[in-house]
Write a structure and sequence with these properties.
Distance between the termini of chain A: 48 Å
Number of strands of chain B: 21
Number of strands of chain A: 19
CATH architecture of the largest domain in chain A: 3-Layer(aba) Sandwich
Shape of chain B: elongated
Number of helices of chain B: 28
Radius of gyration of chain B: 34 Å
Number of helices of chain A: 12
Number of domains of chain B: 4
CATH superfamily of the largest domain in chain B: Citrate Synthase, domain 1
Largest sheet of chain A: 6 strands, antiparallel
CATH class of the largest domain in chain B: Mainly Alpha
Largest interface: A-B, 68 and 76 residues
Radius of gyration of chain A: 27 Å
CATH topology of the largest domain in chain A: Rossmann fold
CATH topology of the largest domain in chain B: Citrate Synthase, domain 1
Number of domains of chain A: 3
Largest sheet of chain B: 7 strands, mixed
Structural class of chain A: alpha+beta
Helix content of chain A: 25-40%
Oligomer: heterodimer
Strand content of chain A: 15-25%
Chain lengths: 428, 712
């Protein structure tokens, strides 16, 4: 879970890292007056996505009027599609140089990695690409809880070769390195980053801050979250979409793949997925795209990711289908139940429940193509056959193959073919 | 189908790579021992499924549950080191504990030297994972996971984890599996089903499927495990199933490019996530594309792997095509047989629910306790030895008997709780009341709560003391000394005689032994077991069982004794033979609508305890008129009613008690006294081997104890 910059700074400050004076946070222009601003100030858009500076999300204001104008502009800004909803103000500082300090888990070795560069203030990925030699890395092998002094000394002496530190600056810089690492370990972070560590005439100070918390560690960081006023887990970057919110409420992972406002193209088949576990959830998206490209003239577009594995109860299965059938974009649904941990019986009951509910309530029914094999197949098969006899009308758009004589790719291909035919019939 | 020997399989190969000494042991023992850690509902359930699949589950480990069992026979230890003390050759551990409490135990397991660790737990904090990885690297452990669905080896029939039984091995011949095939190494679980499905649809076998885990940081990475499998002689192709996020696929590609000599076996990589939008987590913590990073996307992974010469596919069709090309269309098995097997597996009706007891096997006309026929036990063993057998499944060593009996004899010394006994109160009610109020017993059980046999012996001493009071035989107590056999004390208390007639004492003891147990279904046993599922105290649970022994169940002996005596008296008074007197009395009872007690049985037409007691009575010189009546009553009854009701153990005991000239109530006391041993055994078994507050269907119980054996 990502923290906003102002939240990250608060965390760093608690851990003894100097930050610029914070004036506060606003959500509207009117609130700017309530802050006790001492100009010049920096106005910053609070967003979780990177590239804020380039998008014009950081501005200096020299007067209240300017601060208000900037706030109005920032609150209208969209940074990589994500709207700015919060702006915060902090003291503007004089810059003499900038470093980068970051701690993360090395994705190769899973050891902790301290990354330091004398070229801070710009995107570190950019520096890494253009001048890899400007970035220094230390791998901390034993998941040490604090940095060894020898490492800190080495870092400072190497950086000192490029930046002339006063003795006070050197001291503060050492403590920042020490404390960033401590913070990273203390708060179960995945990433703690200060870019830049600004060098001012007197000292060094953390002017931008980025913290990504490890979601798995959140349960034991309630004190930290409380101090930041965070009550529930934050979504990755943007707010969840309405479909995603419904799925969160029903307790299963779901991601919309298309922007919220997508106008439905006539020659495109929109495919919803109730696929099974997360791994196949990702893979089935690829399958739909690949099969579409290879076998069909029309555009075939998967519309969602879903993790329907791990043995969901019947009602949750029904909700998985409801969400997609309520979604106007969905043309067909492809589904797979490979009963390992999950039960085919519960799956088919959930699907039939959803279809019967929709039929009864005159709700739109989307054709479903799928396959089920594995755990509890005999009882699932019996239930399916009985249900078809009992409510044939409600279930006429449901096409579930039993057994694995056809692999899922075949089922997807056939489903798409039928889906396109139906679409043509309807439009004709 | 015959399975591939374990020492030819991939799991053995991995163990041998890192622990050659343990591998040498496995080669001899022909088995790979595994343990389960974390016995919540998932861990326990899958322990059963793994065992069913063929995995050798040696033990479980769960703090607070040491000394108990899961699936009735798998012992549970408190700590990993306790387990290794008993079972030093554990090669694999699977860990199922919740993420919040798993770090320390995983490190414990790793430090114990177990070479293969399968960490099922999902969602472990990254910081803890790093500690775990540090330990695994230090101890050269192959750690699968966290968040792995497990590992499975179809040719040998070993699985560790929760993968379903869908992966199919090579068929060497029509009735023997072979070790060759494709090895799949995957980050995700669900995708494995579809990989296997696609491969199997064209006859490609899997010799090992290794889930390395879907979390962001995992123990064994592609770069650690792929080079190892590259050295396994039975793998023809490696399928690497990766997904977006992280850098492990790229890292592997780097190594392949730098050291192609390490990668001689062909490889195909199936990478998922070509069409995933950036910045969104897709179920797996690892499967996130971080905007702006130059690794972790489908493109970076595909390019890196292709540059290293590995074909990358992104669909089932491509996978099947590529694999077939590399293997030149080789088929490892008959697709038809595979399909049949799958259909059969899936269409199999769900298994009948069952649970196991190791104590008593009940068959028509036969009762077997821990493998020994009860009639043999009655003939040859003392009550103390039988009580011990019920609890432990084996007889005690000769030296132990004396110590056990001392506990019982000591228990006789404490006074009887004061209770009011109503006139005509059922003796079982009186005993139950006393059990519930007995401070001495309750205190002893708290102190000795880990030692069931001591608790039982103490309880038997206490109940003996209650009986001396109930039967008004307290004056014999001063003649009981701590060094005599316990059976003598029982004789003194039951009969009120100070001096001991050894033959009679043995006969009395035989009747008690004959009453010890009848499996889990008698109402008294059910009552005790139900109390045990809610973890009632020992003496409380025994009291529950004893109170269920009424005239309807277990109380027939007293009534039968009275009836036999009545018949004998009538024969003497009227000077008619016993059969005639019995006939007359049965007719009177019938007219009055009264039941004849001691006849008929739910299971037995010829009660297995009958003949041995008759013979013992004869040898003791006790068999008189009543025993004689007990032998003829079935025939006489048939003549009156036209129905054959065989004499049961209660009837025989009643007859002997009557011929001993004892109070008929002693027949019931004998039954209760003996049955306390059986009730106790069921109590301790329930506590040790079943989850608390389970739903019990007593007709689902199956005997899984020792096989039938001869009593020397």
């Amino acid at each position: 879970m990502k923290l906003y910059e102002h939240e990250s700074k608060k965390v760093f400050e608690i851990h003894g890292i100097p930050i610029p004076k914070q004036y506060g946070v606003v959500h509207s222009v009117n609130e700017v007056e309530t802050l006790d601003l001492k100009f010049p100030v920096m106005a910053k858009a609070a967003v979780l996505i990177g590239g804020r500076g380039k998008a014009g999300g950081i501005k200096k204001a020299n007067s209240l009027k300017e601060a208000k104008d900037i706030t109005a502009k920032l609150l209208k800004l969209r940074i990589k599609e994500y709207p700015v909803e919060t702006v915060f103000f902090e003291e503007a500082l004089e810059e003499r140089g900038a470093c980068y300090v970051g701690v993360t888990t090395d994705p190769k070795t899973f050891n902790n990695m301290l990354v330091v560069s004398a070229s801070g203030g710009v995107e570190i990925e950019e520096v890494s690409r253009m001048r890899p030699e400007a970035i220094m890395r230390w791998e901390i092998v034993n998941n040490d809880r604090v940095l060894q002094n020898s490492i800190i000394e080495e870092v400072v002496s190497l950086i000192s070769q490029e930046i002339q530190f006063s003795s006070k600056q050197k001291e503060v810089f050492s403590s920042i390195i020490d404390n960033v690492y401590r913070t990273y370990q203390d708060i179960d972070a995945k990433l703690c980053e200060i870019n830049p560590v600004l060098i001012t005439p007197e000292t060094v100070i953390a002017v931008d801050a980025k913290i990504v918390l490890d979601d798995n560690g959140l349960y034991r960081q309630s004190k930290l979250l409380d101090s930041l006023g965070i009550t529930s887990r934050r979504h990755d970057i943007a707010e969840p979409t309405p479909n995603e919110k419904k799925a969160i409420n029903h307790g299963f992972p779901y991601v919309d793949l298309l922007p919220l406002i997508t106008s439905k193209e006539k020659d495109t088949l929109y495919v919803g997925l109730v696929p099974g576990g997360a791994g196949y959830g990702i893979f089935s998206i690829d399958e739909v795209v690949n099969i579409g490209n290879e076998f069909f003239e029309e555009k075939i577009v998967p519309i969602n990711f879903m993790d329907s594995g791990g043995g969901p109860p019947q009602n949750q299965v029904a909700q998985m289908f409801h969400i997609l059938m309520d979604y106007p974009l969905t043309d067909i649904i492809i589904t797979s139940r490979f009963g390992g941990i999950s039960s085919c019986d519960i799956f088919i009951r959930g699907l039939i429940q959803a279809l019967r509910e929709r039929y009864r309530n005159n709700q739109h029914i989307v054709p479903v193509y799928g396959r089920m094999v594995g755990t509890d197949l005999p009882s699932a098969k019996n239930y399916l056959e009985k249900a078809k006899k009992e409510t044939p009308e409600a279930l006429q758009s449901m096409h579930i193959e039993v057994g694995n004589e056809k692999i899922m790719a075949d089922i997807i291909k056939e489903g798409i073919k039928r889906g396109l035919e139906i679409k043509k019939e309807v439009s004709a | 189908m015959k399975r591939t020997p374990v020492d030819q399989g991939a799991l053995f190969f991995l163990i041998k790579k890192i622990r050659p000494e343990l591998a040498a042991h496995i080669e001899k023992a022909k088995m790979i021992e595994t343990i389960i850690i974390g016995l919540g509902s998932q861990g326990t359930k899958h322990a059963g499924l793994m065992k069913e699949f063929g995995t050798n589950i040696t033990a479980g480990v769960s703090v607070g549950r040491g000394g108990t069992r899961i699936h009735e026979v798998i012992p549970v230890y408190e700590r990993v080191k306790d387990c290794l003390k008993e079972h030093p050759n554990i090669a694999v551990a699977s860990i199922w504990r919740h993420y919040s409490g798993v770090r320390d135990i995983v490190i414990d397991v790793i430090e114990s030297g177990i070479p293969i660790v399968v960490l099922i737990t999902e969602g472990i904090p990254l910081k803890d994972v790093r500690d775990i990885i540090v330990a695994a690297r230090k101890h050269n452990t192959i750690l699968f996971g966290g968040n792995t669905p497990g590992i499975i080896f179809p040719p040998e029939g070993i699985k560790i984890g929760m993968l379903p039984d869908i992966f199919y091995p090579e068929e060497k011949t029509e009735d023997e599996f072979g070790p060759r095939g494709v090895t799949i190494i995957s980050r995700s679980g669900a995708i494995l089903y579809h990989l296997s499905d696609a491969l199997a649809s064209v006859g490609v076998a899997q010799n090992a499927v290794l889930g390395i885990g879907g979390d962001g940081a995992i123990g064994t990475r592609f770069i650690d495990i792929v080079p190892l499998i590259q050295q396994y002689q039975n793998t023809d192709l490696i399928v690497i199933a990766g997904e977006i996020g992280g850098i492990q696929e790229e890292y592997l590609a780097e190594d392949i490019a730098a050291h192609p000599e390490k990668y001689q076996i062909p490889m195909v990589a199936l990478i998922s996530g070509a069409n995933a939008p950036p910045g969104k987590t897709m179920g797996h913590a690892g499967a996130i594309i971080t905007p702006g990073q130059e690794y972790g996307t489908f493109k970076t992974k595909k390019e890196a792997l292709e540059k290293a010469g590995v074909t990358v596919v992104n669909s089932q069709y491509e996978l099947v095509k590529t694999v077939q090309e590399i293997l030149e269309g080789w088929k490892y098995f008959s697709i038809k047989r595979y399909q049949e097997k799958m259909t059969k597996t899936w269409e199999e009706p769900p298994k009948k629910a069952e649970w196991a007891t190791l104590i008593t096997k009940v068959q028509p006309n036969n009762l077997i306790i821990a493998g020994y026929p009860l009639k043999e036990i009655i003939k040859k063993k003392t009550f103390t030895e039988t009580a011990y057998l019920l609890i432990k499944g084996e007889f005690p060593q000769t030296g132990e008997i004396k110590e056990l009996e001392k506990i019982a004899l000591k228990a006789i010394e404490f006074s009887v709780p004061e209770v009011k006994v109503h006139e005509n109160e059922d003796i079982s009610k009186t005993i139950a009341k006393l059990l519930l109020l007995d401070e001495a017993l309750a205190n002893y059980c708290i102190q000795e709560n880990k030692n069931p046999t001591s608790q039982l012996m103490f309880c038997l001493g206490r109940v003996a003391r209650y009986l001396s009071s109930i039967l008004e035989n307290d004056e014999v107590l001063v003649h009981i000394d701590n060094n005599q056999p316990f059976s003598h004390a029982i004789y003194q208390i039951f009969t009120g005689e100070k001096s001991i007639d050894d033959k009679k004492a043995k006969l009395l003891e035989s009747m008690i032994v004959a009453s010890v147990d009848h499996g889990v279904t008698p109402p008294s046993a059910q009552a005790t077991i139900i109390a045990a599922t809610v973890r009632a105290a020992y003496e409380v649970a025994v009291a529950q069982g004893v109170s269920a022994i009424t005239d309807v169940h277990g109380g027939a002996g007293a009534k039968a004794a009275e009836f036999f005596k009545k018949c004998a008296t009538l024969a003497r008074n009227k000077n008619i033979d016993l059969a005639e007197a019995t006939h007359e009395n049965i007719s009177i009872y019938m007219k009055e609508g009264k039941r004849i007690q001691g006849l008929g049985h739910r299971f037995h037409t010829k009660d297995p305890r009958r003949d041995v007691l008759w013979i013992k009575a004869k040898h003791a010189g006790v068999a008189g008129e009543c025993v004689q009546i007990s032998k003829i009553i079935t025939d006489v009854f048939n003549r009156v009613r036209g129905i054959t009701l065989p004499i049961n153990v209660d009837g025989v005991i009643g007859a002997i008690v009557a011929d001993l000239g004892l109070n008929p109530i002693i027949a019931k006391a004998v039954f209760i006294y003996g049955r306390i041993a059986g009730l106790s055994a069921h109590y301790f078994e329930e506590i040790a081997s079943q989850p608390q507050m389970r739903r019990i269907n007593f007709s689902e119980a199956v005997y899984k104890g020792k096989k039938v054996r001869k009593l020397k």
